[in-house]
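Entry 14. Ran structure prediction on the chain below.
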Amino acid sequence: MSKTIRSAGQAALCDALIKARQSAELTQTQLAERLRCHQSMIARVESGERRIDTVELIVICRAIGCDPKDILDHVDAAVPVDHHL
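Output, structure tokens:
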């Protein structure tokens, strides 16, 4: 069984979310305000300390103004074909 919390896919997800937020010219605080959460939650998501589910990804992408499919394409490219759960 592979540990996925620090996997290439998880790192790619964090990287893609950070880049999307920065491209939207949003700070973590501004994104947190849009999501009605604490800035520390955004920091934990972006650092990989807190994992998000699919629904949370969509909500975050909407708040940023990016397409979740673009984020998932970035993650898909980073996950090795032979990666197992």
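The helical segments are 8-23, 28-35, 39-47, 54-64, 68-78. Will compare against last week's run tomorrow.
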